[in-house]
Recover the amino acids of this structure.
């Protein structure tokens, strides 16, 4: 695994961490970074026993967007560079959404451009006080990528999404929480602890059921109700074959807290 992205997997807790590690450029995404992210997602997907995934970043920013220097060095090759980045980022984002394990983004500093899209692709977001969330593409005269236009209106609604794109509105951590992007605002120097606590809670849940929930939720806005009801039926029936379902029923009847294994 490339050093620009570090993968850690705690087999005892089931928590995997993908850490973006180019703090000297605020973790800006170039082709090498995008390919490393895709490789990290594949690595986590292939690992056994992963029940929560934390995406974090080294340094004072989460991701400051794409590496503009990669475009500016030869504008005639910008389309080629963007294609190469997205050839890696698209499978990475789809891979994260296809996992059963919930994805938690831990955000310090700026989440801009592709960084914002990566945050929006997470199921839960912990942001440190002082974090900033900005579309940023408008400053370059381009439209968002990496799923930004798919996730953002779903998370914040069409009106605020338009403000962020057309007016360049930046949200701080508290505003992002109110808007529905952030779930937990952590105090300064408390981000890692807050993300670990949340990941631990999620990792003790019914992992396969969480995967069904995400896939159903992703499909809900584009699926006719009758079809969606049948998809819910299929997911529920599939869940009844898991060890976690048997444990959940046993715990409910025994009036005790369930102890799920993610199986």
């Amino acid at each position: 695994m490339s050093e620009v992205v570090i993968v850690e997997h705690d087999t005892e807790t089931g928590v995997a961490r993908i850490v973006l590690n180019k703090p000297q450029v605020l973790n800006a995404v170039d082709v090498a970074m995008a390919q490393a992210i895709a490789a990290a997602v594949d690595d986590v997907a292939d690992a056994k026993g992963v029940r929560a995934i934390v995406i974090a970043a080294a340094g004072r920013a989460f991701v400051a967007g794409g590496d503009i220097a990669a475009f500016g060095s030869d504008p005639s090759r910008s389309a080629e560079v963007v294609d190469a980045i997205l050839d890696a980022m698209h499978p990475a984002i789809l891979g994260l959404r296809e996992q059963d394990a919930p994805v938690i983004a831990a955000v310090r500093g700026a989440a801009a451009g592709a960084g914002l899209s990566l945050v929006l692709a997470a199921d839960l977001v912990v942001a440190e006080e002082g974090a900033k969330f900005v579309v940023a593409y408008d400053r370059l005269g381009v439209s968002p990528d990496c799923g930004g236009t798919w996730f953002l209106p779903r998370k914040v609604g069409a009106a605020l999404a338009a403000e962020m794109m057309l007016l360049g509105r930046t949200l701080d951590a508290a505003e992002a929480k109110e808007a529905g992007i952030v779930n937990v605002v952590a105090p300064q120097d408390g981000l890692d602890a807050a993300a670990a606590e949340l990941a631990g809670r999620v990792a003790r849940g019914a992992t396969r059921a969480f995967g069904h929930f995400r896939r159903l939720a992703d499909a809900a806005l584009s699926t006719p109700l009758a079809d969606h009801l049948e998809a819910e039926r299929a997911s529920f029936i599939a869940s009844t074959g898991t060890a976690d379902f048997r444990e959940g029923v046993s715990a409910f009847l025994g009036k005790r807290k369930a102890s799920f294994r993610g199986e």
User: Anything to note?
Assistant: The radius of gyration is 19 Å. The mean pLDDT is 94. The chain has two domains: 5-203, 207-253. Strands lie at 5-10, 15-20, 52-57, 103-107, 110-112, 124-128, 132-134, 171-172, 184-186.
